[in-house]
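Lab notes, practical 5.
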Amino acid sequence: MEDDDDFSLFSQEVEGIKRLKSSAIYLGKRGAKVDYSVRQEAATLVPEKDLNHLSADYVERVAALDILQYKKDGVQDGVFKRLRQGKYGIESRLDLHRRTVEQARQQVYQFVQDCMKNDIRVAIIVHGRGDRTPDSEATLKSYLNKWLRDLDDVMAFHSAQKYHGGGGAVYVLFKKSERARQENWEKHQKR
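Output from the prediction step:
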């Protein structure tokens, strides 16, 4: 009985409908043909992976007047002392003043890569003291303290002497490149 009611209701609804003259139905937009090859190529390209592993996430804050110092195992005490005293010639410099944390992260990573590529052993990174912040916590100084520890090519670092920027800069000692290590070995073999 319900089927009869449904059928009669359906018949009433479709009573005035007429058959279409054309059997082809176009559901797309009319216009120029779209070239999907460009879209397909862009979708299949793999974005370049960011090799920079330095993090801009949480960092333990250091005060503006804190001295930064770090030495990996294997760095001789005399070498670290000379670095701390600023007795090594500075071969390269990076200034991070007026940089955001993200800009500084990228520049520090690239700077270390460039130093290693060019056989630079000692550099200075100027980060500023950060004493103008209301909480006296130096943001860039804090991140730099973390980042330099995370980089395998950094053997040691220490806050600079006053004549090089004091607590607003840091001396960085890089490991020897393979080429420099080989040259040093050959030089000492000739003795």
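Observations recorded by the TA: Helices lie at 2-13, 37-44, 77-84, 101-117, 139-150, 178-189. The CA atoms of residues 18 and 184 lie 94 Å apart.
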